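Data availability (excerpt). The following record was deposited with the supplementary files.
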Amino acid sequence: MGYEFYYIEAHLACFFLLGIILFKIIKGVNKDLSTVYLGNIVFVTMLYFIAEIFWALVDSGIINNTKPLLYLSNIFTYLLISVDAYLWFILSETLQKGKLVENDIARLLISIPVWISAILCISAYRTGLVFYVDENNVLVGGNLYLILIVVPFGYLFAASAKAFYRALDKDRYAERGMYFMIGVFPFMPVILGVMQAMYWRIPFLCYGIVAAVFYAYITQTENLISLDPLTQLNNRKQMFRYLAKKMREEEPGMSLFILLIDIDHFRTVNEAYGHLEGDNALIRVSDAIKDACQGPRSRFFVSRYGGDEFVVVAEMSYRAEATWLADQIRNNVKRITENFGTNYDLSISVGIAQYDYETPISLQAFIARADSDLYKQKKIN
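Predicted structure:
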């Protein structure tokens, strides 16, 4: 029994494992852009495994290893692995809310290395620039073979470098797990890919790819669990986790604040216009809060606390900054009626509490202080 049996067996096993993930993605209720991209990656990877099986059948002689078939089997594998890496870069940019992939032209420009790689592969039969079959019917790398390696690795390392840079940023605590996943993703495929390059008839790479995809799928699923499904803000559980960490670690020169935000008379919106319009109002208010919290320092953690309440955890130098932020949020919410032409006015009340590291209190007591201030603001209004 030759190597081809074990090679094909490994790729079939990996194919069916990824098939399970693809089935879960297709059947899942979440259809956001990042999930769609991940599904595309899984699908292309499964095609890549089929191409590897085809290559093994040709290389081993089970299928007559004619010169055209040798070319064809290698074209599929190199082309699909480049497309896979490109899709991963697009997914990583989407998860990191990058501006590079927001329009079709930008995505087309980013895909140029894939098109170059594809043209070189398809034309190899005539040019032999990236690979050719010698007189002994053996595939040999051409003068430009390195391009076929640099293209997929380039996409992977570019995504990884950007993600690690962001993961090290203290102000991006909430997304750190996602950034770390993007950064680590290439390690297994690259390490096992190098091993397969050394022992090219041992199927190391397929296991590395499957491990990386499973890691990405699990991390993305966990990330979805940490988000409020309606507003896509961090949920209450994530807010508690983040706030507890900040209460333990004082940032020099900064003070820790909570802004507890409540929509005034929200029940009347639900009663008068229905729960669907109530949901739209919650989404618009959450967007207004996020817009107010945009800034170069990004020291704001925005979350939905429950119902019509939101929480912003903010690190600022002075209480006046927290008051200013509350005013910005109020103004953004007031503009909702004008911007969306709603038949009702929206307003909010904001309670502010500042944490004193010299006299620590519990997380619940800290939130209660903000709630007490919120109650006072409502009475004033």
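Summary of structural features: Strands lie at 131-133, 139-141, 255-263, 300-306, 309-316, 348-354.
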